[in-house]
Amino acid sequence: MFSKIFRFQTLALRNWLYVCFVVLLVQMYLNTGTLSAYAATMEKPTVYGGYYVNYDWPQYVANYKFIIGADHQEWERGVVLRRQLMYVIGYPFLKIFGFFLGSMITILFVLLGALFFFFKFIENEFGEKATKVAMVLLCTYSGIMYWIGSPFVQNLIVPLCLGIYYLLFRMRHGSFNFNVKAVFIIGILFTGYDLLPLFAPGVLLFVLSNKTFRVKQRLVLFFISIIAIVLPPLLIRYWLLCRGADLSYGNDETYRIIIHAYFNILNQLPTWWARVTLIPGALIHCFFDSNFYALPILFLACWIPARFLLKFKMNLVERCMLVSVLILFLFNNMTPPYQGEWQMWGDWIARIYQAVYIVYVMYIVRLSAFIDQKRRASQIFTTLLVLTLFFNVLLNTGGLYASSFTSFVYSKFYKHGSPKSYQLNLNYYGARPLGFPEHYQTETK
Q: Per residue in 424-436, pLDDT tens?
């Protein structure tokens, strides 16, 4: 029983996993220290002991202080206190090793564990070839490398999306009780990172569209699912309030501001319409920028011929998740102008749509199993996959030589610096992963 759950069926697949995990760990390490993209893509990163950090550092220190039981004055004004899942899971590591090392150990365990069990899921459902394709795509995915140098919860985006997809996939033929439990677990996953506005509409759409149940059962499950999804985040808020947190400082107020702006749409029709005309261009940019070009291009190159020539379609889970992301994109971009620090329209913050990567990956993975016996299609697919692998590895290791290519692609993902910021910072401070420090005084470049 243990062997069946924790071992892959063939020696070739196990060896493939070992190689992919080694490649993944090497790439992850080469994106730490001064190569940490979330910090290095800023115009003026703050330097600590030879490395630099993103401006979110104090906010996540507040989360750490909260979970270890520090005085509430040390964390009460943290703006991301609602993202508690990683700190609950990693409490022992945080308590023993402190904020940075404890967070990185937690991230490593969660990420590798989630990938392992997801690969097992793919092997059981779609076979060996599909599993190898999943390993190649996920172990070279730039969305892991961008965040890995920072000890922040953004590193949970990949494992959280794997979990949400798995649960929705299992819900297709699960019992009524299983569906309720699965949606509640998804609600718990939403406390790890702000994926609720991104995927909650998709989960509810899936519940309504799942033909496993009769219409009345689906309606009942729909209303129960609303409660199950929002309950874990509400419980986190209640916990924070009971501990004395000041939630008025949270940056999740942005969506409330946007909703309020829609009520003033009639007073701003000309400027609102001018913004609406920019939506097609923003959609194209966000589609490519949010997942570092290679994966979206591979998805398009596979989806267009597969859909119209091979009649291979997205499954219900993928359609619902994709529509859900599109709903949030339109919600952010059709709003009239509003006052607020965080302007969610346009393509400057394409990173908020990164989680849609799971749709691209799973469609490609399932397609690889579908065309396994179609020799010509399989050869073309393999060529495209190799090109994607080459692109990703080139991008992921570009920090070693201060690549202008990597600097440009990273800047498109999140425009909080210039397209050359990453390259300039590496040239100034040197490309040094963790373990190769220089003893700068704390400073701002």
A: 999 988 999 998 8
